[in-house]
Write a structure and sequence with these properties.
- By secondary structure, the protein is of the alpha/beta class.
- The chain has one domain: Alpha-Beta Barrel (TIM Barrel).
- The chain is built from nine helices and eight strands.
- An eight-stranded parallel β-sheet has the order 1-8-7-6-5-4-3-2.
- The longest helix is centred in the middle third of the chain and has 10 residues.
- The protein is globular.
- The protein starts with a strand and ends with a helix.
- The relative contact order is 0.16.
- Bound molecules: D-xylitol-5-phosphate.
Length: about 210
């Protein structure tokens, strides 16, 4: 599977976001929006209206770091989300319903695990409904954190379990950590600070894609 690069715009100043999207979309595969409710994670981030206001021409991933994703899924799919990421830790008892709703709305399902959640905590019948497993390589809530290399083992376990699925890794992905993630089996890389701060963003995106 090809490596897909999805920049996170969490740490991009709001007034620069549209310009950044238009520039970076030339060299990446889509855009990732981190949605935070101040409950599942302490910070809050974009509102639905803000996400609706940005013009994304490629793939859009919306990462719902929220306690009640069922209240937001339809709005974000209508706002253009191609992949909707929800967290296993948010609402285990209604995971099936949330994942089913995402599929019914025509988007791809992604299930994210926080660093402390082992892969085998998720029942196989739930994984069967997940198009894109996502491993958080930082604690959710903030950009600019360091990559947690012990999360690579979870990527390896998922790659072994699902040879044909895209596997997403999110947090602290740079030209140094991306090759480790790819070698472990990740095929979608979310990168916030590294890409935004890069002098040459085209070269930076290539460095992420290149792998070992
Ligand atoms: C953290 C977010 C990540 C973060 C990535 O909760 O899910 O997407 O914005 O930013 P960097 O690449 O700076 O860790």
């Amino acid at each position: 599977m090809d490596i897909k690069i999805l920049p996170s715009v969490l740490n991009v100043p709001r007034e620069e976001i549209q310009e950044y999207i238009e520039e970076i979309e030339q060299v990446v595969d889509g855009i990732s929006f981190d949605i935070m409710d101040g409950q599942f994670v302490p910070p809050t981030s974009f509102t639905l209206e803000e996400v609706q206001s940005y013009n994304v021409s490629k793939l859009m991933e919306v990462h719902l770091m929220v306690q009640h994703p069922e209240t937001m899924i339809e709005d974000y799919v209508k706002a253009g989300a191609d992949i909707v990421t929800i967290h296993y830790e948010a609402l285990q008892e209604s995971l099936h319903d949330n994942l089913e709703l995402i599929h019914e709305l025509g988007a791809q399902t992604s299930l994210a695990l926080k660093p402390d959640t082992p892969v085998d905590h998720v029942p196989d019948d739930v994984w069967d409904m997940v198009d894109v497993p996502l491993i958080m390589s930082v604690e959710p809530g903030w950009g600019g954190q360091s990559f947690m290399t012990d999360m690579l083992e979870k990527v390896r376990i998922l790659r072994e379990k699902f040879p044909d699925k895209d596997i997403n890794i999110d947090g602290g992905v740079t030209d140094e950590t991306a090759p480790l993630a790819i070698e472990a089996g990740a095929t979608i890389l979310i990168s916030g600070s590294y890409l935004y701060k890069a002098e040459d963003r085209e070269e930076a995106a290539e460095a992420l894609r290149r792998g070992l």
